[in-house]
């Protein structure tokens, strides 16, 4: 199946694996709340147990240095792409309101980003994340 859009998550390459997984989880939740993401139907197993719907579009997970994340978020903002962000401070907070407060503390160029995610037209996303590598 071909998609006109691209769903990417970019994480800082220097994070421990558990933090990368945490960032990917939070960011995917942010992007899947937008109108850009389409979900399929519920899954049903052979015993008629039902399971939640999933995003029908593949998610591409990329990695870059932290400094490149700042470049990417600025490109996304210029292109008016809805973007989910995760900053270093959010590892120390315990709830959503505290997360928003930590982000509000920084100007865009100073955000201590460890991950970003977006879903938009393929060409736009490719321009934003140019230089990122597939996560291994």
Automatic annotation (TrEMBL):
Gene3D superfamilies referenced in this protein's UniProt entry, alphabetically: Bit1
Domain of life, per lineage: Bacteria
SUPFAM superfamilies: Peptidyl-tRNA hydrolase II
InterPro entries attached to this UniProt entry: DUF2000, Pep_tRNA_hydro_II_dom_sf
Organism: Vibrio palustris
The name this protein goes by in its record: DUF2000 domain-containing protein
